[in-house]
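tl;dr need the bound structure. longer version: we got a ligand (fe (ii) ion) that a collaborator sent over and nobodys looked at where it sits. i said id run it. heres the input, straight from their email, havent touched it
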Amino acid sequence: MPIFKAPETHQEFMTEYPRTTADSLAGQMLRHYWHPVCFSRELKDVPSGVRLLGEDLVAFRNSNGALGLVGRRCAHRAASLEYGQITPEGLMCSYHGWTFNSEGRCVAMPLEPADCPLIKKASIPSYPVQEYGGVVWGYLGANKDNPPPLPKLDILVRDDGELSMERGDIRDYTYLNWLENIVDNGHVLVLHTLVPGVIPDDIRPYINTTVDADWRNSNFSVFETYFGMKTVLVQNTADPNLKFVNTLSVVFPNGWRMANNGGIPPDWSNDRRESGGLLRIIDDTHFEVMRLSFIREGNYRKGYRPSDPRLNRSFKDRLHGTVEKKDHDHRQYPGWEGSTALEDLIMQQSQGSPAHREELLASSDAGVVRLRRIFRKCMEQVAAGEKPKAILNNDQGVLEADTFKGLVTVDELKVGPENMPSSRDGRGLLRDASGNLLFA
Ligand code: FES
Ligand SMILES: [Fe+2]
């Protein structure tokens, strides 16, 4: 691996921060981690072209069921193996039949003599690939024989509800703008309240509408955790014994978790839904949002996402505002307010790259500052020849990132790097004024 110097100044760091390719320190740092490639359900008898960390690859499942993740260009005359044929041995280039196994070695050259010595020379890049919880993961690092353990996210394997997994949301800016948005709890109280939420009639009786949404009256903390980091926002309610807590986690460097999709003031609803996802880091200026949405049994809306059209809207269906579009509004996204997904997209896209940006960070940016510190530390460690922090240990079991959102009594409130107790037991359910779980 080439030697890279750790950034010395803030500007050097900000220039390096969004880089993803192998010829950069940040790209080498990212290569210490497993990255999502696609969903298991997609890999059948057709290869799947995938760009990851600036590398054009092909994922495939050979006819014996074994997975492969290899370079996209054929070693012969560079035709794309995305159009290759699946065989028991691996992936056959459709042009002249050279066939590559999961290790990238050529195992067949049907147009050459049987003893052709070239077959020993012909190879393409290959990378370790594994499946966990319906996700195909790839490792593009140097330590191919001993990669780190997979991040075993609990949301992928839980059996107390229904998980839906959605792909196809490709963004044309750095994935860091997404991650920084996740740890920026303050924006929720501004950007996502431009159009007030509506409380559904069926849960109106359960909603505590006395939550104090003034940021200055709330308590915002940021913690590093063994999986990355989390932010905790604690807000007051009219009952001094009852707090509203919202915790969001970043599973370094490409995952996040939060409790439910809604719950924005003055709605505060909690429908036993958790969300989060994985970012496929395509290159310096592109990423894909792979969404995970989990609905626990007993959802108040009666019925899970697949059977309820209101909950079954794809990301694309949510990409329009709810306000009136004015004739004189000639912006790229006219009448954009009112859709959380679109609101976030526009702000993140409009920020541009961290490398070319002037900023003035303030106290409410504590989450962003911490996230950058973790990235910088990890880069420094890689530059020093060490493994970056926040890499999971070998004995790491299923990973439960804190995702609590809801009301807790003051006695229950635990603000620290450990998960809120209720994150495991109740997971963000609303509680009534006596602290009793609702919808239990
Ligand atoms: S280009 Fe692939 S076999 Fe010829
Ligand atoms: Fe947001």
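gonna send this back to them w/ a short note. The two ends are 53 Å apart (CA to CA).
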